[in-house]
Amino acid sequence: MTGIIEFFKSLPKKKCAKCGNAMVHEKADCYGNVCDECDYPGR
Predict the structure, then answer these.
(1) Distance between CA atoms of 22 and 18, rounded to whole angstroms?
(2) CA distance 24 to 6
(3) What are 3-37's pLDDT values in tens digits?
(4) Residue 11, φ and ψ in degrees, nearest 5
(5) What is the pTM (predicted TM-score) of this model?
(6) Which of 9, 10, 32, 41 gives the lowest tally of CB atoms within 10 Å of its CB?
(7) 15 vs 1, 23, 26, 38, CA distance in Å?
(8) Counts for the chain of helices (H) and strands (E), in that order
(9) Chain centroid to CA 24: how far?
(10) pLDDT at site 43
């Protein structure tokens, strides 16, 4: 079981597909790859 846990711990942080910045707040209930700043509908 520790092999799986170590695997997920070693994954790199997600980056936004539009701006390339690290996603500080990953959205747990979706698999989106766009940060909140780029996903804002007013932009």
Answers:
(1) 11
(2) 21
(3) 888 988 888 888 888 999 888 776 666 677 888 88
(4) -65, 140
(5) 0.54
(6) 41
(7) 27, 5, 10, 12
(8) 2, 0
(9) 7
(10) 59
